[in-house]
Amino acid sequence: MADGIPQHLGKYEVKTEISRGSMGIVFLGHDPYIDRPVAIKVALAESLNDPESGDRYRKMFFNEAHTAGKLTHPNIISIYDAGVDEENCYIIMEYIAGGETLKSYTRPEKLLPIEKVVEIMFKCAKALDYAHRESVVHRDIKPSNILVTKDKDVKIGDFSIAHINKPDSTTTQAGGVMGSPKYMSPEQLNEEHVTNRTDLFSLGVVMYELLTGRHPFEAENFSRLVNLILHESPPPLRNFRSDIPEVLEKIVRKAMQKKADDRYQMGLELATDLSKAFDQLERPKENISVQEKFNSVKKLEFFQGFPDAEVWEILRASTWQDYHRRDDIIIEGELDDCFYILVSGKVNVKKKRKIIRTLGSGDCFGEMGYLAKTKRTASIVAEDDASLLKINSTVISQVSLNCQVRFLKVFLRTLIHRLSATTEVISQDV
Q: I want to staple 395 with a disulfide (CB 3.0 to 4.6 A). Which of 107, 181, 187, 317 is the partner?
């Protein structure tokens, strides 16, 4: 077996490697007595043997078995056993077949439906509420420590730096700054007393990422990250995704309050608000799915050369609008700062009620209003059923820098083509 791991640890058979992390290597194993697959986490030999930090690492490794082992909840990975076989320290855990972490769903091109995010966060909040009532604070809630099963159920794992928050606890627990900086609460960064509200702050950060595909505290270095978490509010969710309802904005904002007293006090509080939000989100399904919208937009000439991730960014940040025949889209004389990309259907450009041009799928309009909020010089009316993307400059300023640059290049090319065509028409009339 690779890395010097034998084919058996205690009574357990060691099979194939599943993953590696800072606290150990996880293998697929088999429990021959109960006849079930298990996950076996094995401590890193080099870390155990380090003369300066070996003892601390060993305590942290078995801390997971000590803390999570006392928890029994459907949304927390179960710990079955732990032991030492010669020089190998191991923990036996529940095996989740086909599972992947939430990290996969924090990318703009792979965001889950809003309703599914709310459901997952609801389960996480309930699981943390249970753990907190058992005096266990996780201290490292982040997407890569939350596993999603094949049917999108959720399991919180990796309690290696968890803290037993009991005054009479006799277990030696690691102190100092513990956790992943991008998901730490202000009190963690300040090395203050950590409570269950720390986990709820971290869960708020995870929810922000799952809804937007962006981290709420994006920073180029550690000192800037710390300053953002301690002193600055993250951008509103709707800056990145226009279809997020205000109720979720309020929930995420409350979960990530700087002062612990201003946050949700217990996971059950957060779960209750998420449950209410889910009730509000239940509505008739749209005629066209988000994936179908993406497929339609991706085919447009405007987006040729855009990576899928950037198309997703613009799609989620923009507003998708459907119009019926003869519906007004833009009215001559009104102020408007939006740029429109026609996804399907036809629209008529009218000036003083006279049709001067007809646009079809892939065409754009509204360039001048987008550049400088001015009164529209023509009306746009749907000739038949039409779908389009509505984009404003505020939306584009919030997508990634590469996406902004690519969008601006195509936008300017479109504007130049439009101005050239207009100049040609004018010169012919002279």
A: 317
Q: Is 144 helix (H, G, I), strand (E, B) or coil?
A: helix
Helix (H) or strand (E) holding 204: helix 196-212
pLDDT range class, residue 186, cuts 50, 70, 90: very high
Full-model pTM: 0.73
Is 129 designated active site?
A: no
What type of residue sits at position 192?
E
- Tens-place pLDDT, residues 372-390: 777 888 899 999 999 999 9
Q: Which of 140, 199, 273, 336 is catalytic?
A: 140
What string of DSSP letters covers 264-309?
Answer: -SSHHHHHHHHHHHHHHH--PPPSS-HHHHHHHHHTSGGGTT--HH
In the predicted structure, residue 177 carries a pLDDT above the cut 60: no
* Contact predicate 83/10, CB 8 Å: yes
Residue 418: how many other CB atoms lie within 10 Å: 15
pLDDT given at position 131: 93
Closest by Cα among 156, 69, 77 to 121: 156
- In a 13 Å sphere around the CA of 256, the CA atoms on its Cβ side amount to 30
Judge whether residue 169 has pLDDT over 50.
no
Question: Of 17-21, 327-331, 412-416, which one has max mean pLDDT?
Answer: 327-331
User: Which amino acid belongs to residue 56?
Assistant: R
- Running DSSP on this structure, what letter comes out for residue 366? -
Query: Bridge partners of 340?
Result: 365, 390
All domains of the chain, ordered by start, with CATH? Answer: 2-94 (3.30.200.20), 100-281 (1.10.510.10), 290-429 (2.60.120.10)
Task: Round to whole Å and give the CA distance between 333 and 347.
Answer: 18
Q: Please report where in the chains the tokens 């006392």 appear, as a residue.
A: 70
Q: Which two tokens stand for residue 346?
A: 């036809």
